[in-house]
Amino acid sequence: MREYSTVISGFGGQGVILAGKILARTGMERGLEVTWLPSYGPEMRGGTANCTAIISSKLIGSPIVDSPSALIAMNPPSLDKFETRVQENGLIVVNSSLVDEPKGRDNIKVVNVPLNEIAKEIGNQKVINMVALGAWAKFVEEISLQDVIKGMEMTLTDMGKERFIGSNREALEKGFGHAE
Amino acid sequence: MVDKQLMRGNEAIAESAIRAGCRNYFAYPITPQAELLQWMAVHMPEAEGGTFLQAESEIGAINMVYGAASAGERTMTSSSSPGVSLKQEGISYLAGADLPAVVVNIMRGGPGLGNIQPAQGDYFQATKGGGHGDYRIITLAPSTVPEASRLTYDAFDLADAYRTPVMILADGMIGQMMEPVELPERKPPEEIPPKPWATTGAKGREGNVIKSFALGGENLKAMNVARFERYEKIEEKEVRYEEVNTDNPDIILAAFGTVARIVKSTIRLAEEEGLEIGLFRPVTVWPFPAARLNELSAEVDTVLTVEMNAGQMVEDVKLAVRPETETPFYGEVGGVVPTPGNILEEVKKYV
Lengths: 180, 351
Description:
heterodimer; A: alpha/beta; Pyruvate-ferredoxin Oxidoreductase, domain 3; six-stranded mixed sheet; 38% helix; 21% strand; globular; B: Rossmann fold; Rossmann fold; 2 domains; seven-stranded mixed sheet; five-stranded mixed sheet; 13 helices; 14 strands
């Protein structure tokens, strides 16, 4: 697959770092090249964290990209910061629970998903990151929902958090189902 | 199934050191190197005979390394730029006492306290002898997480073979990022060469003495001359580099570590525009691969050096290339990482 870069950005605590790791693991389990790079600058509580996950069939040069293929914006500052950098014909998954619909770019696929409400239905606010990844998977041709589920399962298993696999799988499936 | 793991650079360096037989690790925490210490805290005690000790300071840690190395142990410390400055006295003593040890520098922005973003400002310090006196240390500059793992594993063998400190010179990006890594096998203890010079107790033999101190000009001269003879062997045998697309390019870029991998993306961007960029990447920044760069410079008009500093390796590039080669420089400082696009713009000034 061509180099596919995703920036995941949100408040500290929204699970952006873990979501990026799961994307990288998903690519790795598919036998693809991957990199994952967190932003690790100083942030105040409630500040914005982000990470970049790249998946490619070729060796990946820079783990930092000028313009990502996709953006997952979990809070308003994330959309402000990265919206204009997304590639033409790229993808933006927006957490419509917290973020107004972006306007002003017609060459981008925008997917509005009420992450917080869906997570609430599932009964676990912590899975909003997986709701977002489920929506992402629907529009990334080369990666299937099953691939992401496997990446999530393996990541959580390595962390010793198998007991959360069920709710995270539900979140991925609901995000995928909701996205259009 | 190959044993591939998704690891941060810091974690891969730590685990590879353990697998290389390092059983004595001393350090003091600092960002962006902290995960290395954390990995060691968890996993070093699990290794047979493993000692993890968080020292009271960087100076304490490097002197503990001196002690463990004197006893013939494989030993390592790690830090980031300001912390590595604090270790320089100890590194000079290790070099002066001909002790093998591995020192990891996950560089950040400087000088002074600087910031915690990736930078390459410690190239001079690492390659020109960062402490006092007259010495060099083998300096290995990984540009990916798998390479950081491999070079750390090799660093212990190099340190033992030449009785010298070896530095892993990486930066915050390599330390923080994750890539799939195929870790090396654990080195069996019998494959680690014996150290008959170590201070292991002198029962039944002459006592060994380890020191960097020699009163009288001739004594110290002899120690220094012998050491520089070893440095010559290192320069002869241990030079490592990587070349990409150096077969008839329009321009050659010289870069090490993180910047070199970004240049690989620049090469692809340039190809789309019909521009051929070659990359020359020193893996050993000391010994610097000068002879090969000299040969390559005959093929192009310009060797553009790109670094995350204000121009350090470019001095070694200038010494290496032919007199007629143009040697411009592009650098980002203060923890700013150049993007593939930034570098391509710079290239276009020269081709």
